[in-house]
Specification:
By secondary structure, this protein is an alpha/beta fold. It has 9 helices and 5 strands; from the N terminus they run βααβααβαβαβααα. The radius of gyration is 17 Å and the shape is globular.
Length: about 190
């Protein structure tokens, strides 16, 4: 199985299509309430983070079965690479609590390939319809390598991997997307 988080508003706004597409591709979609969602009047009363628990449980079950789990280190649309969040460490702690250690973390940058004219994109109201993306593969780290490098013997030590995540993403996203987040991550890594 493949487990993938999706913004709550995108899932709800396109639910019939999301259900059909995810069933066809055998993907478990986990809607999560993020900043992009609460900025919409329809969803402003939902707590940020709603859906994370279901995602973490589904992720642990998928990895136990040899599946794949997608993770967005920043969650939502950002203008540039930002400071580290606790997305990666939260997932890793959940896996730790479910006694899952046989996995690897692969970093990949996904960037739009602007082939659509600005006029056409404006007409789409910012939707990604017709957009093409470039996936740039990065490094892969096994849990054993991360455990050795960051002393992951206790859940509180896991937050150190979040800086690594942003640093690795900075290597594979478009240079124009990299901002201060990479510098903050590198400083945090240097302190470890």
């Amino acid at each position: 199985p493949v487990v993938m988080p999706v913004a709550y508003h995108q899932y709800e706004d396109f639910k019939p299509a999301m259900i059909d597409i995810s069933a066809f591709y055998n993907v478990i979609l986990c809607p999560i309430e993020i900043d992009d969602t609460v900025s919409r009047d329809r969803y402003k009363n939902l707590p940020i983070g709603q859906g994370v628990s279901a995602y973490l449980i589904a992720a642990a079950e998928a990895i136990k079965k040899g599946g794949i789990v997608a993770l967005s280190l920043q969650g939502g649309r950002k203008e540039s690479l930002s400071e580290p969040t606790r997305a990666l460490s939260t997932l890793m702690v959940a896996l730790h609590l479910h006694h899952v250690t046989n996995y690897a973390v692969h970093f990949a940058g996904i960037s739009p390939k602007p082939h659509v004219s600005a006029d056409m994109y404006e007409g789409l109201s910012g939707w990604n319809i017709g957009m093409r993306y470039e996936v740039r593969p990065g490094e892969t780290y096994t849990f054993d390598v991360l455990q050795e490098r960051f002393n992951l013997t206790r859940p509180r030590n896991f937050v150190s991997v979040d800086a690594l995540g942003i640093s690795e993403l900075a290597k594979v996203v478009q240079p124009s997307y990299v901002a201060s987040g990479r510098e903050v991550a590198l400083e945090q890594l240097a302190d470890l």
